[in-house]
Amino acid sequence: MTREGEQIPCVGGLTFDADGRLLLIQRRNEPGRGLWSLPGGRVEPGEDDATALVREMAEETGLVVCPGTLVGRVQRGPYSIADYICTVVGGELRAGDDALDARWCDATTFAELPLAELLRETLAEWGVLPR
User: Fold this and answer.
1) pTM for the structure as a whole
2) CA distance 88 to 116
3) If DSSP codes are grouped into helix, strand and coil, which group holds residue 72?
4) Is residue 52 within 8 Å of residue 83, measured between CB atoms?
5) Which residue intervals of 1-131 are DSSP H helices?
């Protein structure tokens, strides 16, 4: 349980394939159940962002990633989210524990999906929309 006003540190992974498609997951849990978002989640006590991101990406997508550059930070309610570029180095894509589905999305698919609040606008502002 968190105290009112307390920030919950989280990470998200911006992962693209060779065709410029963006990896998204469909959220299994609230907030945003059923909506599509970047894979990621909470930074657990004792973890740094990179460790949390590797763990969360494996849990949600089945992929092993190497975290790279910080792209940006957002605040969504109590969640303070740091989003990083990630490179896939192993694994096989599958929906994991916190995801109903996981897929690579091109620009057309991205435009058609019900997305988490402000995802489209934030990624456009950062210049990291799928091709």
Assistant:
1) 0.93
2) 23
3) strand
4) no
5) 49-61, 107-112, 119-126
